[in-house]
Structure formats: structure tokens, C-alpha cells
Amino acid sequence: AQSVTQLGSHVSVSEGALVLLRCNYSSSVPPYLFWYVQYPNQGLQLLLKYTTGATLVKGINGFEAEFKKSETSFHLTKPSAHMSDAAEYFCAVSGSGSNYQLIWGAGTKLIIKP
Amino acid sequence: AAGVIQSPRHLIKEKRETATLKCYPIPRHDTVYWYQQGPGQDPQFLISFYEKMQSDKGSIPDRFSAQQFSDYHSELNMSSLELGDSALYFCASSQGFPSGANVLTFGAGSRLTVL
Hints:
- The complex is a heterodimer.
- Chain A is an all-beta fold.
- Chain A is 0% helix and 54% strand.
- Chain A has no helices and eleven strands.
- By secondary structure, chain B is mostly beta strands.
- In chain B, strands 2, 4, 5, 6, 9, 10 and 11 form a seven-stranded mixed beta sheet that branches. A four-stranded antiparallel beta sheet of chain B has the order 1-3-8-7, with no helix packed on it.
- The chains are: A mainly beta, B mainly beta.
- At the A-B interface, strand 4 and strand 5 of A face strand 10 of B.
């Protein structure tokens, strides 16, 4: 069975500091990995995804994530936080065949301190 | 670019009433997914349709039903509403047969409040 663990329900960083949101997964099949962002009272927006190929994936708004199979991780990073990055971030995993449904992490709320 | 359209955006109902949520997928997207997100929760998968047929079923209560129509829009019907049904309901769409690599595009959600 697939599962996703996001470390830290809340992460607080200062504006301009590095953002690191952690995501670990378990999957019995080669995974597809996603990060979605949800701004207050809005829908989920895809930040980036890993399906195949290069393990360092660049997304929108300056975010990137690296798929590390040996560590079963897909951590999300951004070199310099902006106030506009304050939102909730969800990591999700899916697999192939009958395991195609997205399995979601519990989400991490990113707080940006001025 | 066209996005996933959900209506209504907000809905207030009394217990035991019924509610219908509508979802219009991105043009040429033939798969629709419904999710329920409670306060502070991650999205919970309810049900999905591909080419107007149910493709998968998640934690959808028996009081709820859904269908996808010939124009690919979908409706989620909720009856005998309970307080616990208060949540944000998301619709998402994707193109092609459901697979793990599909990228889901989400609508802005319909917020249901049951009083």
C-alpha cells in the first residue's frame, strides 16, 4: 500500500530564507510524485511532478523537488521565501496500474515571517 | 486557459436536506474526480469517472451519488445531509484513461455548510 508522510504540520521561515518541506513516501510500485499548493479558500494547484526522467524537478514559483529513491523522499525546496508563498502544501503519490489514485500527505502549512 | 469550473462556490443547507454540486472539466478532459476536504484535512477521494463511466470509488457515503454526463460535466448529489458533511468539495479533471501519471487540475471547490 502507498502512503505519504509530511514532516511538520506547520513550518515557519523568515522571508528570504530557505524553504524546505519534507515528504517521504512508501510505495510498492515505482511512484509518481506530486506537490500541490493550496492558498486560503482556493483550490489545489500543481507545483511540480515527478513521473520519469530527471530526478530534480523544477516547478512554478521557484520551487523544486528532488526524487531520491534510496531515501524514498521527495522534499520540496525554494532558495528564498516570499510572503506570497504562505499557503498549505500537499505531497501526493500515485502508482501504476490499479494504484493510480493519488494518496495525499496531511499537508504542511508554510508560514512566512517578515 | 480554461480551468475546472465548479458551482456553486458556497452552499448552505440544513440537516437532512439535499444538495447538488456541479463540475465542468477542462475541455477535452474526459476523467473527473471528486474529493472532500474537511477543515485542516487532506483531500479524501470520493469517486471518479472516465468517459461517463465510474472508474473508481473511494470513501463516498451511500447517501451520495454522482454521474458524468455526455458533455463530460459531472454532478455530485448529496442527500440526507449531516453536520459532518460540511467540507470543501473539489472536482478535478484529467485527460485520458486514469493512470498514476495523470496530472489532475483542480477546481476552486464548493464549500458546503450544513447547519
